[in-house]
Design goal:
Number of strands of chain A: 20
Oligomer: heterotrimer
Strand content of chain C: under 5%
Number of domains of chain A: 2
Structural class of chain A: alpha/beta
Number of domains of chain C: 2
Strand order of the largest sheet of chain A: 6-7-8-3-9-10
Radius of gyration of chain A: 24 Å
Radius of gyration of chain C: 22 Å
Chains: A alpha/beta (500), B mainly alpha (216), C mainly alpha (223)
CATH class of the largest domain in chain A: Alpha Beta
Number of strands of chain C: 0
Distance between the termini of chain A: 41 Å
CATH topology of the largest domain in chain A: Rossmann fold
CATH architecture of the largest domain in chain A: 3-Layer(aba) Sandwich
Largest interface: B-C, 61 and 69 residues
Number of helices of chain C: 10
Helix content of chain A: 25-40%
Chain lengths: 500, 216, 223
């Protein structure tokens, strides 16, 4: 079905090839997992199969051949490959073109010119099969991560491609959303579809996968049959930089009360006299957006030197809380640090956010200039080169920040926040789609910021990261929403939303 | 299975001179490229325009900034032009967009016209010349005259319509003198000069950031 | 939209401006988008005050200039209101289906649809970049006046880079699903000229007729 013969590929502007002499043959109806650490080439291999490599990257250099269902990928245009393959990219929320489940599912069939009756029929069947109990009129961006994943799968498969490719489908999914993902993959497999999954979290595929291919440096490193894979221990997986089981992190609750705090979490009141030094206090903080109350916290205390995790489903007010704390969003109530009330401007000067998309916060033309900009911000002059050396960034000093890898950019932003001596540091989903080794280094970064004595807030869905990096947790719910019973509330907040 | 390189365009070395031949048939990627850069241009222009809304005085100061700042996304767009006609289509969709935010239809026609001219200049530079890109952007910036065209074409009628509304006839005469062709043409010329500066700024930012970041 | 633009921008078009503003406000209210209603009414009121009342109350060269300018800009308010309604209520697929029904060339129809989808992406990226700049203390009138080019650079470079990056997944996925391909697309629910459209057309005709028959407050000036 898929034949990759001796492919070497270099992305435009890259120094090294992403794939080096990759040979791979996948039979019809097989489910293959491609795995390996970040940068091992597993996502690139998927892009090779659906033709994004080379069609989407002008000036890249490709040698070797790729044949999918008898079609040589370099001979045809992307839409021809799109009709025989279906692709689910890593962030389903970022690939939707339309606003509703039905339109999105029909999108490929409309563009590829299927007959109207057939399209209608197949869209209805696909939605019923793969995107069940989805609120049909809900805008797609308001769905949870798991629901978005289901819609993405439905929209990639309604035109009944013979090959389906998924790029890290389990990242950012709660355990029961992973269970639904397994169901969807099982359905596709029993329909005879060839499936290739690029993943760094493998355990959930155990009952389905026919072959596991471990990649390293752009080539095949090891191949495990289904039976061999079952015998591989989690420790072996760790050695390949892979994650094991999806688990939920149990964190002690931070003291917090109010309609926004999920019932059963929050360790109750902290008397005003007993607030630890340097802590961040929220008092009667309410925020209205578009005529709706999006955040309503009676009281919360976040300690300095600790990492407090903020959890909750999409739209529960996590980013609003971060924006209120950092002074970017107006709200009623009092936000105080170290026992003093801080105005919005003062909070802006005391805070930093490490955004999910760190490219949005790199302003200068070199790593050194970026740190220098942060230094001018800090009290007193600092020796830039010494700072760079201590942050382990000196080798990159003259590089353009935008030319760094995602992980390096993130380190640079964290470094700038530390150099500027920010006392409140927010990490917004810092680990989407990273492997185990990288997860550890992100966690170390977060811990280091906390060790400097800052109040660290970690917004994340990633239970693996939370287990490593967080000390306490707060789970938010939409203040208007019906509160679940305490027993249900102890599970992931996403669960509640999706079974509602 | 042979080991020989088989891919067609992709294995060709990435030198600018070998990118042609340019054809009129757009790929889906070209369309998406035009769309994203048109949006970037609109948002940048709109962001600067919003600063000007504070007061008419500020508007006089920020108006010339529009073509200067717009040069940054536009020059990056030109590095990604791969087919003839992309610059024109950019103009057409930008013109339609300006109508959606209230510009007169005459303005949209001007935008299409200057885009066609810009396209010609780019063709003359074989799509890869730095200076032809700068001149093309300078020409494109001439669209700034567009919103004032209805006013220029029928000045008397405009002034009359409002003169009747209680302004004394002396003021109407003063305005008539102020809005005379030479003054407006001077303003227009200033905008074109700013367009040239925008082209230079765009090129500088390309070199300082986007080339080093691997985006151009 | 074209109709409104032509009507309002013609020299004698001031007659149609109140009708255009009424239409824009009604459309905004039907969404309902109360903030736009407020913005439209407020800007129309400011334009009216500056353009018609101020020069009468306090006549001198400056106010007359402002008056003329506002008399011109009030036309934009009407056209903007109608255009904003169109942008806010149309989904990308509906737009491209509609344009296709009008036989607009593929390159332009698809580009407009994709633009409509990219606007929120670029807008949210811009907002995030501004947030990041604010936290780094890079936003402020003083900084802007002192180093205008540097300020512009610090906003546009991350904004463009992050937008391009954010648009990459979207474009890859839509192109793979055949957007902009040379095949003839089929629309799941073809656009129809339904009764709401007919009602809208009637309302527009009625407003235009009223504008012509009744004396216009803008042309008559202050009694």
């Amino acid at each position: 079905m898929i034949e990759i013969g001796g492919v070497t590929w270099t992305y435009p502007h890259a120094d090294h090839p992403a794939l080096r002499g990759l040979d791979l043959s996948i039979a019809r109806g097989e489910l293959v997992a491609l795995c390996g650490a970040s940068g091992s080439g597993k996502s690139t291999a998927l892009r090779l199969i659906n033709g994004l490599v080379p069609h989407f990257h002008d000036d890249g250099v490709l040698t070797g051949t790729v044949t999918v269902d008898g079609v040589v990928t370099t001979d045809v245009e992307l839409d021809a490959l799109g009709s025989i393959t279906g692709t689910v990219l890593q962030h389903p929320g970022r690939q939707f073109f339309t606003d509703s489940v039905r339109e999105e599912t029909a999108f490929a069939m409309e563009n590829l010119g299927f007959a109207r009756e057939l399209t209608r029929d197949r869209v209805d069947r696909t939605v019923a099969r793969l995107a069940t109990w989805m609120p049909p009129d809900q805008p797609l961006r308001h769905l949870s991560g798991g629901q978005q994943q289901q819609v993405a799968i439905a929209s990639a498969t309604a035109h009944e491609p013979r090959v389906v490719l998924l790029d890290e489908p389990s990242s950012n999914l709660s355990p029961d959303a992973v269970a639904r993902l397994i169901g969807a993959l099982g359905q596709l497999k029993s329909a005879g579809v060839t499936i290739v999954v690029a993943e760094h979290r493998l355990r959930y595929l155990e009952g389905l996968v026919d072959r596991v291919i471990v990649m390293r440096d752009g080539a095949v490193d090891a191949v495990w049959s289904a039976a061999e894979f079952r015998g591989v221990s989690d420790a072996d997986l760790a050695r390949e930089g892979l994650r094991g089981e999806v688990r939920s992190a149990d964190l002690p609750s931070a003291p917090a009360t109010g309609p926004s705090i999920e019932a059963g979490t929050g360790a109750g009141e902290v008397p005003a006299g007993e607030v630890p030094a340097g802590a961040l206090e929220l008092d009667a903080v309410r925020c209205h957006l578009g005529g709706r109350t999006v955040l309503d916290i009676s009281r919360a205390v976040l300690r300095a030197g600790e990492v407090t995790a903020i959890r909750g489903r999409n739209g529960a007010g996590k980013s609003t809380l971060a924006r209120v704390i950092t002074g970017l969003q107006r709200s009623s109530g009092v936000v105080g640090l170290d026992g003093r009330e801080l105005s919005r401007g003062a909070r802006q000067r005391a805070s930093a956010i490490v955004m999910q998309d760190v490219q949005r916060q790199l302003f200068t033309e070199s790593v050194e200039a970026e740190i220098r900009l942060a230094c001018t911000d800090a009290a007193g002059d600092l020796d830039t080169s010494a700072v760079l050396a201590s942050l382990d960034l000196d080798a990159l000093a003259q590089r353009h920040p935008l030319s760094l890898s995602g992980g390096q950019q993130q380190r640079l932003v964290v470094a700038a926040a530390r150099v500027a001596g920010r006392r409140i540091v927010v990490f917004d989903e810092p680990s989407s789609g990273v492997d185990r080794r990288h997860l550890q280094s992100i966690s170390n970064e977060i811990r280091r910021v906390a060790a400097d004595g800052a109040v660290v807030i970690l917004i994340s869905h990633d239970d693996d990261l939370l287990a490593l990096a967080a000390d306490r947790g707060i789970t938010l719910v939409s203040p208007g929403e019906l509160q679940a019973t305490p027993s249900a509330a102890t599970t992931d907040a996403q669960t509640m939303k999706e079974t509602r | 299975m042979s080991e020989s390189p088989t891919s067609a365009a992709a294995s060709a070395p990435a030198s600018p001179s070998e990118r042609s031949p340019l054809s009129f048939s757009f790929t889906a990627r070209d369309i998406v490229t035009i769309a994203i850069f048109a949006v970037l241009y609109v948002v940048v222009v709109f962001a600067i325009g919003m600063v000007g809304v504070i007061s008419p005085l500020v508007m006089v100061l920020t108006l010339p900034l529009v073509p200067v700042v717009g040069g940054i996304p536009y020059m990056l767009f030109l590095t990604r032009v791969r087919h003839a006609g992309m610059v024109t289509v950019f103009g057409v969709v930008f013109g339609l967009t300006t109508m959606a935010w209230g510009h007169p239809w005459q303005s949209a026609l001007v935008i299409v016209a200057v885009s066609l001219l810009a396209e010609v200049v780019i063709v003359a530079g074989r799509y890869r010349s730095k200076w032809s890109a700068i001149w093309a952007y300078t020409i494109f910036s001439a669209w700034m005259i567009g919103p004032w065209i209805p006013l220029l074409l029928d000045r008397e009628a405009y002034l009359e319509a409002q003169g009747a509304a209680g302004l004394g006839s002396d003021y109407v005469e003063q305005m008539d003198a102020l809005l005379s062709a030479p003054v407006v043409l001077m303003l227009w010329f200033a905008c074109i000069v700013c367009g040239f500066l925008g082209g230079l700024l765009g090129t500088a930012v390309l070199r300082k950031h986007f080339v080093r970041a691997g985006l151009a | 939209m074209l109709v409104v633009s032509v009507a309002v921008m013609s020299p004698s078009g001031l007659v149609f401006v109140p009708a255009g503003i009424v239409l824009a406000v009604a459309l905004a209210a039907s969404e309902p988008s109360w903030s736009r209603v407020a913005v439209l009414l407020a800007s129309a009121a400011i334009m009216y005050a500056l353009g018609w009342i101020l020069p009468v109350v306090w006549p001198n060269g400056l106010t007359a200039t402002i008056g003329i300018a506002c008399g011109y800009l009030i036309r934009f308010v009407a056209a903007f209101g109608v255009g904003a309604h169109l942008v806010a209520t149309t989904s990308p697929t509906r737009l491209s289906a509609g344009l296709r029904a009008w036989r607009i060339p593929r390159a332009i129809a698809v580009t407009l649809a994709v633009m409509l989808r990219f606007f929120p992406v670029v807008a949210s990226t811009s907002a995030a970049v501004l947030d990041a700049m604010r936290l780094r203390g890079l936003v402020g009138a003083r900084g802007f006046v002192r180093h205008p080019v540097l300020s512009i650079e610090r906003f546009t470079v991350p904004m463009i880079a992050a937008s391009l990056r954010a648009s990459e997944d979207l474009s890859a996925s839509t192109i793979l699903r055949g957007l902009g391909s040379r095949r003839t697309p089929v629309t799941l629910d073809p656009p129809r000229f339904g009764w709401p459209d007919a009602a809208l057309a009637l309302a527009v005709a009625a407003l235009a007729a009223i504008s012509m028959v009744l004396p216009s407050p803008l042309a008559e000036g202050i009694p």
